[in-house]
Write a structure and sequence with these properties.
9% of the residues lie in helices and 31% in strands. It has one helix and seven strands; from the N terminus they run E-E-E-H-E-E-E-E. The structure holds zinc ion.
Length: 117
């Protein structure tokens, strides 16, 4: 994976993306949309389609998780994965959505504030 800066028309700014490189000599060097992973997906990505990767924000989060890239720059919350049954970081994206960083399952993020213990 190689990092690039691309202009995202949905976010109206430059975002960092990773683009996978096809192994030399095996395939033609054509770039497919599904080889692009946005590293700055977040709660500002409210659109139904990411213009860079031609994917729903949820699909983009899954790609990011499966790419193995670090998610340090993203907003996350700790949660219990409804699908994998693990305590995991959930990547927040869109409006009130979050995806499990372990298995990629999307969930609804309903907490709006913290409270004293
Ligand atoms: Zn999970």
């Amino acid at each position: 994976m190689k990092s690039h800066q691309l202009y995202c028309s949905a976010c109206d700014r430059q975002v960092k993306v990773m683009i996978s490189e096809a192994p030399l000599g095996e395939h033609q060097a054509t770039l497919h949309d599904d080889e692009l992973v946005c590293l700055e997906i977040g709660d500002h990505c409210n659109g139904s389609l990411c213009p860079l990767g031609a994917a729903e924000p949820q699909a983009m989060v899954s790609r990011l998780i499966h790419s193995g890239e670090k998610i340090e720059g993203l907003k996350t919350v700790k949660g219990h994965g409804p699908a994998c049954d693990l305590e995991a970081d959930f990547i927040l994206f869109g409006k009130g959505k979050a995806s499990c960083s372990v298995c990629g399952t999307a969930a609804r993020w309903v907490a709006e504030h913290v409270e004293p213990m």
